[in-house]
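Sorry to interrupt, but I need a hand with the structure work. Leave the record below and I will have a look:
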Amino acid sequence: MTRKKIVILGNMAKPGIAEAIEELRPWFQRRADIIAVHPANEPAPPEAKEADLAVVFGGDGTLLSAARMLVGTDVPLLGVNMGKLGFLAEFNVEHMKEHFDVVLSGQVKPTERMMCEVTVLEDSRSGDAFISPVANDVAIAAGQPFRMIDLRVRQGDHEVAQYRGDGLIVSTPNGSTGYNMSAGGPIIEPTLEAITITPIAPHTLSLRPIVVRSDRPITVTATRVNQGTCVIIDGQQCCSLHVGSAVVIRRAKRGVLIVPLPGRNFFQTLSNKLNWGFWPHLEG
């Protein structure tokens, strides 16, 4: 029987993660061929696309880096949470050891999560200035000197609104429990194909979060910005935004495959991580 191939990715800058990977290396080697051990925030090694599984050590941020790294490869990601909440990185080390063999054998079906691609154009006549895959969200932050900014948003050929405030978050369902939720946006079931547009501290209360279909590009044009206004991808990459710049967000042709923790569904994860919908038992 052909042995499966795995790539191990991690946030090597975080204390304890490189040591944990080295400690587990013999355990992995008894079960699969390790084709690479690599930092999750660096470009993918060429051999990574040949892997049957990527085991990602870190938190959700590390898994987001890995998702952008391996976009388009169809390599499933198993996230081992060494951080705090772990919405995406559902496994801890004990869970990983318990379920690793059945995951590697293909008995646990990965779920596909929609990804996007963002293109930042300096102006409507210029070529592509910045392109990146997006796993969670594209945020536009006002930046210094922290005056309100104006952003015009279109979906396909349709005008959505003129947003005035501290910025805007355009999120995949994957990212709905991140910055989007903190800004008052809705929680979206992660396997849906939809996009949320959530204003940050809007100047008028009539500007509310909205959920739109994902098959039409969303274009955000900057009409008034600050010197420090920037576009932030997954909270990890950024580029400056200027008056006349356009931010175009499209659904990516292929998503990312995430291995779920067997026996747990999305609503159980919400309850476990957020006490979502939890009513404590009251006695007396």
Observations:
- The chain has two domains: 5-113+255-274, 116-251.
